[in-house]
Amino acid sequence: MCGIIGVTGAGDALDILLDGLERLEYRGYDSAGIALIDSSDIYRVRVADGTHSVSILREQTKDAPPGCVTGIGHTRWATHGQPNELNAHPHLDCAGDIALIHNGIIENYAELAAEMVASGHTLASHTDTEVLPHLIEECLLTSDGLVEAVRKALEKVRGAFAIGVVSLAEPDLIVAARRISPLIVGTAGNASFLASDIPALLERTRDLVVVEDDQIVELRPGSVKITDLEGNPVTPRPLVVEWDVEAAQKDGYDDFMTKEMNEQPRVIADTMRGRVESSGRIFLDQLDLSREELASITKVSIVACGSSYHAGLVAKYAFERWARLPVDVDIASEFRYRDPVLDSNTLVIGVSQSGETVDSLQAMRQAKQSNARVVVVSNVVDSSMAREADGVLYTRAGPEIGVAATKTVLAQIIALELLALRMAQVRGTLAEGAVAEVVSELWSLEGTVQEALARDEDVAAVARELVDARDFFFLGRHAGFPTALEGALKLKEISYLHAEGYPAGELKHGPLAVIEPGCVVVAVATGGEMKEKILSNVSEVKARGATVVLVAEDGDTQAASLADYLLMVPRTSTLLSPVKDIVPLQQLAYHLARNRGLDVDRPRNLAKTVTVE
Ligand code: F6R
């Protein structure tokens, strides 16, 4: 997830770009860059300095050539290639005559890059993006100008993109295009603008239109022309913006947590993008473990903290069922201080959104000393854990600003399940047809989660009914157990209410004693395999006077008859059920916290990244 901006026709293009990039930093901040069309050159500056990137970029462009009217800018959240200056956008072609910014993921970049190198191009970075200016340079040889060249180039591209391209040969023109990744364009007087999001442009214009998938835009001073890929004109969809900049950064939602929950469908698709080949082979690009190395693994050990630990617990069921591998899942701060039995045939998977959590980092280092193969599932490219691991699987969720993990947890589950499927393929423990079925369900989760999110008002109504409750038990069995743990953690951290997650079958071994009227039991009663059993556990708490909230699947009348309140979710297979069952639990925590007037983005006593023991 990156932020892009472009302007042509304004006397102060550089200021517009820098101001816009500041407004876009919430989309990514590991590096930033701009390119301006000067009279005979493309002036380009790129900075990779984390959260300071845009302010340093402002410093470093103080001596930019004055009076440039056309330029593009980018703020990056890396998905391919380290967050360094070399990989920062804009990227150039070989001649340095074309500059390009990109938000998205080019799925077939490896094959396109090989094609470009074979045609004599030199690629300087490790990004998926850089192939695009070279492809456009190549297409220009047989095209009548930049617009046609971009159109031809995009015919070859698979994946998600919003791009802005400038060329020295047509100095007033920016060509933009979109597939999946967001893009808006607009005008004000003689200036025309493009951006990934509204906040970048709000101070310049509210005369905006949304570019749709597979549309190409020609931005010239004061004019914007939108066509489809074949060149046919299209009628643009105007965008009515009533937000201020802060509301726009939150996409109009009240807070980042809601925005990030609503990004979950996109994040699921992005985490899969380019990793499942049409042949059905799972291709985990940066994992860096050969088929032989994967085949030699006899045990998996997952280490993580907090919500990432819950994602690891969900994955355990998939590794065991699909790949028939024994799996331990440990809380990193415990793993560090026991004496785990690891060897070179153990695959240790560190799961960490930030990649900086000190307990997870230390656990990973300890595992390396035992000669285990260590891989990391992280949301931050080049984080400490990513740098030190033997291989990485990035979650591509984009920056998560709310302290409570939401979209990154779902992305971790998807990434881990892809890895479990890959292991199953290598070990031959799952028939190709069965792999294809899981892959197809994984793709469908984008829509399933969208549907779950759309039921927010039903969850809000339940939260209103529970406004006086102070004690919550979250119960689940099988894959529903980590879901219950995650539901309890979300509720605790943002609402400050007492909540415990428990395996439902353990209830009668102690916790049942505290169940009494006034207690709320939230039970995850999905996942066909264990449903009967969990419903019988629910009867036990109901008989003791607890208020019962059930997460149940559409059409489940049996669950409906037991519940005081229902949180209905779409149906899925058991192993993938946490991906959608977590959603109403996030929403429940959210509404209970908001009803108590709390700041859901910044819960007390907590930090987004925990770098102390
Ligand atoms: C919960 C939450 C924390 C993190 C934990 C691990 O909502 O955000 O429990 O999951 O601190 O952080 P990472 O994944 O960065 O290692």
TrEMBL record:
<feature type="domain" description="SIS">
    <location>
        <begin position="290"/>
        <end position="429"/>
    </location>
</feature>
<dbReference type="Pfam" id="PF01380">
    <property type="entry name" value="SIS"/>
</dbReference>
<dbReference type="InterPro" id="IPR005855">
    <property type="entry name" value="GFAT"/>
</dbReference>
<dbReference type="InterPro" id="IPR035490">
    <property type="entry name" value="GlmS/FrlB_SIS"/>
</dbReference>
<dbReference type="InterPro" id="IPR046348">
    <property type="entry name" value="SIS_dom_sf"/>
</dbReference>
<dbReference type="GO" id="GO:0004360">
    <property type="term" value="F:glutamine-fructose-6-phosphate transaminase (isomerizing) activity"/>
</dbReference>
<dbReference type="InterPro" id="IPR001347">
    <property type="entry name" value="SIS_dom"/>
</dbReference>
<dbReference type="GO" id="GO:0006047">
    <property type="term" value="P:UDP-N-acetylglucosamine metabolic process"/>
</dbReference>
<dbReference type="InterPro" id="IPR035466">
    <property type="entry name" value="GlmS/AgaS_SIS"/>
</dbReference>
<keyword id="KW-0315">Glutamine amidotransferase</keyword>
<protein>
    <recommendedName>
        <fullName>Glutamine--fructose-6-phosphate aminotransferase [isomerizing]</fullName>
        <ecNumber>2.6.1.16</ecNumber>
    </recommendedName>
</protein>
<dbReference type="GO" id="GO:0005829">
    <property type="term" value="C:cytosol"/>
</dbReference>
<keyword id="KW-0963">Cytoplasm</keyword>
<dbReference type="GO" id="GO:0046349">
    <property type="term" value="P:amino sugar biosynthetic process"/>
</dbReference>
<dbReference type="GO" id="GO:0006487">
    <property type="term" value="P:protein N-linked glycosylation"/>
</dbReference>
<feature type="domain" description="SIS">
    <location>
        <begin position="462"/>
        <end position="603"/>
    </location>
</feature>
<feature type="domain" description="Glutamine amidotransferase type-2">
    <location>
        <begin position="2"/>
        <end position="230"/>
    </location>
</feature>
<dbReference type="InterPro" id="IPR017932">
    <property type="entry name" value="GATase_2_dom"/>
</dbReference>
<dbReference type="GO" id="GO:0097367">
    <property type="term" value="F:carbohydrate derivative binding"/>
</dbReference>
<dbReference type="InterPro" id="IPR029055">
    <property type="entry name" value="Ntn_hydrolases_N"/>
</dbReference>
<dbReference type="Pfam" id="PF13522">
    <property type="entry name" value="GATase_6"/>
</dbReference>
<dbReference type="GO" id="GO:0006002">
    <property type="term" value="P:fructose 6-phosphate metabolic process"/>
</dbReference>
<keyword id="KW-0808">Transferase</keyword>
<dbReference type="InterPro" id="IPR047084">
    <property type="entry name" value="GFAT_N"/>
</dbReference>
<keyword id="KW-0032">Aminotransferase</keyword>
<keyword id="KW-0677">Repeat</keyword>
